[in-house]
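Appendix B, Record 12. Input sequence as logged:
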Amino acid sequence: MARFTPDKEVAYDLRMTLSNPPPSTPAGARAIVYGGSMAGLMAAGVLSRHFERVTLVERDRFPNGPMPRKGVPQAQHVHGLLTRGMDILAGIFPGIREDLESAGAEFLDVVETTAMFGAGSWRPRFHSGVSAASVSRLVLEWVVRQRLQALANVRILDGREAMGLKTSGDRTRVTGLQLQVPGGGQEETLEAELVVDTSGRGSRTPQWLEALGYPRVEETRIHVDVGYASRTYRKPSGFEPGWRSLALSPQLPRERRIGILQDIEDNRWLVLVGGWLGDSLSTADDAAFLEFARGLPQPHLYEAIKNAEPLGPIHLYRFPHSQRRHYERMSRFPEGLAVVGDAFCSFNPIYGQGMSTGAMQAEALGECLHQGVRGASERYRRRAGEILEGPWALATTGDLGFPEVQGKRPPGFGLMSWYGNRFQQLAGYDEEAMRTFARVQHMIESPTAMFSPRMVFKVLTVRPDKAAQTPGPLPLAVLRARATG
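Logged structural output:
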C-alpha cells in the first residue's frame, strides 16, 4: 500500500472506475464547473451523469499528488468530511471508501475513538455507529480528483481563470463562461447549458450578476475573527493513549480556545490550535505553538505533542467572518447558473460543515436536473436555501453566543442558547444524548432530533454533577510516560 510522504509526489494504487456510467437523466450536452475545490469536484461528478460533456475549470495548476496549492490555503489544516458528506461522495464515486483506505485513510467511530472534552467535562466514549474518515484534506481531495479525472466525459482545464459569464441577448440565460490564462494571457469562451460556480467565498458571481442588471444578492455576515495554526507530527513510537483523535472545546462564551489532534495517514498527527475573536497565534513560532497548546481547556494535547517530532512548518490561517449569500431570495436570477459550496455559504471552519454542505448542494443540484435543464437553476437555488438553514443555525448559534460577535440574533435566541448549553451538559454523561448529538453534527439527522419529547425531558432534568463523573482519558502521569516512550 502506498502512503503519503510529505513533499514528494506519489502514486496510489487506486481501484478507479475508468469509464463514465450512463447518464441517469440526460439533461443536456455541456456543463461547466469553475472552481476545483471539493465542492467543485463533487459537483462535476454529479453533472457527469446528466451531461454529455462536463468541463471543470480551475485557476491553479493541479499538482500531481496530494500537495498544497495556492487556491486552497486552508488545505493543510484539520478537515472533517462528515458522515453525510461521505455517504454522498460514495454515491457520486462508488468505491471511493476503498480508494481512500488504499491511500492510508481509516474509517473510525467518531465517539468511540475520539477523546472529547466539551462544556466543561469529558464526553462518554462508546460505539455510536457514526463513522468518519481519518484522513488529511490533501489526500482526500487528490483521491477524489483522480476519480473525477478517470471519467470519460469529464475534462479538467486547469491554469484558466474565469473572467465573466456569457449570456443570451436578453441576459435571462447564462450560455457559457469567459476564460483567460492568469496574468492576461490567452482568452477563450466555453459554451454550456449549465454553468456552476464553486469558486469559493471570493466568488465574483455577485458582481457579474450586477453588471448584467440583476439585483445585488443579499448577504449575512457573522464576524467571528477565527484564527488557527496547524502542524503535522510523527506519532511517537509505542504511544497508545486509548484514543485515536483528541478534541478539546471551550465553554462558550467564557472560553475561546480550541485544540484538535487528528490521526491521519502514514502514522502522523495533524494538530490544530486556535480560537475565536483574535485569540490565536499570530506567528509561526515553535515555542508559541506549544505554549498556546498548554493554555487549552485540558493539558492532554500539549502533553501528547511536547516531545513529538514535528514533520513540517506551522501553518497559520485566519477566517474573518461566516458569510451566507441569499441567492434563494433573489427576485430575478438567470437560467443556466447555479452556485455551490462556499460561494453560496461559507461557514466558520471550526464546525467542520463546509465540505459536507457542499456535498449536499451538489446532490440537490443533481436531483433538480432530473426534470431537465430548463428551470433547474430556480429549483436548485430554492432547495439549496432550505438545505443551508439547519447547518447555518447550528454554527451561528455558537458564534452569536459571544456578546462581542456582531450579528442579528433570531427570535428566541436566548432560549435556544440556554437549551443548547443544557444539551451539551447532558451529552457529558448520557449516551443517548451523545449519540443524538453525533448524528446531528454529522448531518445524519436534523437538529430537530435534539428536541424530541424524550430529549426535552432529559434536558430539563439535566444533572451537571453527573457529567463530572464521566471517566476521562488516561491519567496525565501515564499519558506523559507513554508520550516520551
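Residues 248 and 421 are 16 Å apart (CA to CA).
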